[in-house]
Amino acid sequence: xxxxxxxxxxxxxxxxxxxxxxxxxxxxxxLSRRINTTLSEAIVLGLLxxxxxxxxxxxxxxxxxxxxxxxxxxxxxxxxxxNVRSEIEASHAAAALxxxxxxxAAVVTSIGPGALHALAASLVPASDGLGVWYLLGDxxxxxxxxxxxxxxxxxxDLFLRLCSIMGRAYTLHTPLALATALRRGLNTVDHPHRAxxxxxxxxxxxxxxxxxxxxxxxxxxxxPPPLGAAADQxxxxxxxxxxxxxxxxxxxxxxxxxxxxxxxxEFLALTDAVAVTSPLVSGIIPYRHxxxxxxxxxxxxxxxxxxxxxxxxLVAVGTRFVCQSDCSRTGYPRVQQVININTDTxxxxxxxxxxxxxxxxxxxxxxxxxxxRQAGAASPAAPSPWFLACSQKRQEWEAFKAQRYAQPALxxxxxxxxxxxxxxxxxxxxxxxRSAGAVCFFDAGDVQANGFQIVEDDRQxxxxxxxxxxxxxxxxxxxxxxxxADRPFYGLALSxxxxxxxxxxxxxxxxxxxxxxxxLLLDNRRMGAISGLQCAQYGQDYATxxxxxxxxxxxxxxxxxxLALDGGPTPGSLAAALDQARAHxxxxxxxxxxxxxxxxxxxxxxxxxxxxxxxxxxTQALRHQIGL
Length: 628
Fold this sequence. Notes:
Elements: H1 6-19, H2 22-28, E1 34-38, H3 39-49, E2 54-58, H4 64-75, E3 80-83, H5 87-101, E4 106-109, H6 113-121, H7 123-128, E5 132-138, H8 158-166, E6 168-171, H9 178-189, E7 197-203, E8 210-215, H10 235-245, E9 249-253, H11 261-271, E10 274-277, E11 292-295, H12 302-310, E12 313-317, E13 337-342, H13 345-348, E14 354-358, H14 361-374, H15 385-405, E15 409-412, E16 417-420, H16 422-436, E17 439-442, H17 446-454, E18 463-465, H18 474-478, H19 481-484, E19 491-496, H20 497-502, H21 506-513, E20 517-523, H22 528-538, H23 552-557, E21 563-566, H24 571-583, E22 587-593, H25 616-626
Helix pairs in contact: 1-2, 1-4, 5-6, 10-14, 11-14, 12-15, 16-17, 16-24
């Protein structure tokens, strides 16, 4: 029998709860600093010390011991487990929770397929810089023979190899290596600039292994500190001189600038620059700000892409230059100098002609602003030709959008009637969300691309769109975070029919755990983004549509506790349905058939280049011609 039986574990958990937490229990002496425990309990204690109190679980034979510890500690009120029906959903919900609220969570799976599902979904936090713990069951360490659901090869640590490709990982082959594993996990999940997933692999036979006299002081605390402003060595002076010489400055704002909104606004005014934003930071510069040219790239805006195409100097702040965001490295054909502010050396030196400032965005911008003022920079007294040209393109973009909103419905032969367009639906829904205080999540595909071209956020925190991984089913699964959060919020998931059917278990799990939100299901019975790309490249779509009619309202109504509604034929009827959904104490689904077809008013258009399909040759040739 293990050193700690259930009764001993229960008493220990209750003592910690009575003291007000692990640190208080240790300080008061209610909990000895050296205890007889097991590896699984020590893991939970270590995560509690890091303020990880929420565990999303799909338990199996590879995680029964971990499940027993979670049961005891939940009964004592120290943590909460959420049993869900998909490891992918669990991962998305944990990522959304961290993104929206900053709260940490752990995803707990069994061995084999469950762990691989979670690994696949961890593309989202890996791409978007979100710290999430993954506790994955693994094969036993004594090699008594093949374990069911392990990778079927006669080699060691195959799951560790898989996970290590995605991010940082550790196998607890040796139980007393726990402190090192937890420290590496803490440094990854709470990294101040580029957090990510951490995979803690738990062999089935080491989970219950005894740790006699384990020293709780070994459990690590304290996140790594931020980098701070970039080192000088004359870099700020050279950057200031370059900026003063430039005539057309564009600032590309990425996810690494999330905390630098005020500094960005001051920098834009001082340098007479305009901003092009990543979808990850919608609202970091208010949409209505005159220097905000909104999004750029292969699914950018008229004004965003104009600024990129015509700038002679680029200031990149916290951006990774994902292919679509910079037109596969062809987005800045006239730029002669790049000033790149990033905490990652590789990202900071991505382009040629770069002066790299390796540091945190906010403090580095402040130092650069100071250097500019010392060099004589001042905000222009009158609008410059560059600002006026960009402003004109911004007006064209607003007129372009207004034209689509003025024609909200088009005839669609698939539906045999007039149906709403995606631009009209997304505009009405996001306007409603701002007025209702709802947080918007966008799923992958047409809904996502049209969405970040349409949203008009006045601040950060209104819109979350996974443009890093573009993981279908993220948005609907993210609604589960509304039930996990310490301070609950209302979520609106804008999803296509394809994304929804990849993760429909949210209908059940959302009711089970008390999610409050609405799935707005835009149904065009196809993968519209890919159909459109195929038509643009090859003149016809192929294998991206289906002929199966689905009654999504009936599907939603089949789950007791879900309010399922028809969104109606107009933006007004949609807003009324969303009001009804918002009044429901739980999860809702609003279904809308939407237009797909050749009419340009049915979408938001494409204004950039992309290195895919039969565009590759010309895009690659332009990249090498530019030489940036």
